[in-house]
Amino acid sequence: MISVITKPMRHQEDALAKLLPIKWGAAFMDMGTGKSLTAIIMAASRQARGKIDHVIWFTPVSLMDNVRRQIKEHTGTDEQVHVFSANTNELTVPGCFWYVVGLESMGSSNRTVLTVHKLITERAMIIIDESDKIKEHRAKRTKRLTLLARLARYRLIMTGTPISQGIVDLYAQMSFLSPKILGYNSFYSFAANHLEYSDKYRGMIVNSLNTEAIANKIKPYVYQVTKDQCLDLPDKQYINRICFLTDEQKQAYELTKEFYLEMADMMVHSDSEWEKTLWLFRLFASLQQIASGYINEYGKKRYFEHKRLELLQQVISEIADDESIIIWCKYLHDIQAISQALAEDWGRDQVCEYHGSLSTQARNTNEARFHAGAKFFLATPSTGGHGLTLVESSYVIFYNSSFKYSERIQAEDRAHRIGQTRKVTYISLWADCGIEDRIYRALARKKDAREEFRDEVELIKEQAENRKNILKTLIRCL
What we know:
This protein is of the alpha/beta class. It has helices at residues 10-19, 35-48, 64-75, 105-108, 110-119, 140-149, 168-177, 179-182, 187-194, 211-218, 227-230, 247-261, 264-269, 273-292, 308-317, 332-346, 360-371, 381-384, 405-412, 434-444, 449-463, 467-476, and strands at residues 24-29, 54-59, 81-83, 98-102, 124-129, 154-158, 195-197, 205-208, 222-225, 236-243, 294-297, 300-303, 325-328, 351-354, 376-379, 395-398, 424-431.
């Protein structure tokens, strides 16, 4: 029998009071408010009442071991936990109470799907951790999870960011719980009643309709809370530090803009979403990479003299030597350069890397070293921005910033969550150039920088007679 040794906080008790009596529920709880403990208590309570035999907990692959550790922390043991691996199949899967499965594997591994299918029964409880990862209703993982989960009586989804693009994100998450919640058996029926599409650009949502009706339908099944409502956390402090581009960077920056200026006419007249997305990604990524000291050209990196790393070292020198520091980098190239520089200054044992190029075991080892007292945690938001608790540090440096606000705030909240007792200082490094200024302004408005730019391009295409020249002006301002 599973027993929980951690006492829940008041807001977690409120979540349990609402979600335990129902078969399907959503815990839309802010990052750092204790979603995992809430789910663990729910599962233990249902087992104690003879409602379930086991739990299948789906989570991003990078967080699988973190879930195991959460279970161990709150129950005192991980003996009844099986974390899926490359060796797990229908014949080798052991008998356990907790099964931890990588979300991504449900879209890419038939072996994993068949093994999960064997485990899911009416007496299983299914948990989707970070359920915003199944918001795409056409994705293979979403379809497979939704179909298989119907076999289980109890289903729970959890995320702190249920909506990033509008109510369209709710359809797949609620359909996973049950199509009865929204009352639609297909996305097309949902879209016909709640989404307005552009007449000119296929697939572009321009408005959400009847949102109050959606809110009323999901309300009985959702517990929602923000950190401000339930936690008395220390304040946040934000500091920006700026460096200037070198002459070599400036030259490469302007040449890159000229290249994309030559493509402006094609982009204005293109109706291909794929072409526009690829064009914008390459434009933004190339300029931001140059601002960080390099660029990818035909599969090879070209390096520039730059002052960003020097600025990082200056910032670190201004922080007390006994303070641990989290450093977020968007690009693996930056992590490699920073890691080498920090190792020379502080010793290799003081630098803990966490990114997608490392194995899960290596990441877990490095995270443990940071918890044990190493000075630097050096990570990419795409890999380390979810699930981790890094409250040992109250200093967080963004060496460069993501285009996405959701990715930025996820990374921020690794240090600003339950267990943090000190004011957290966030220091963002910026280069003095148009692309970084646009990213800064978009994040300040809680927006995605690249999406904002694409929307501006679409407005030009719809309204401007001299649209090519206006688009060129937009590019020149970057």
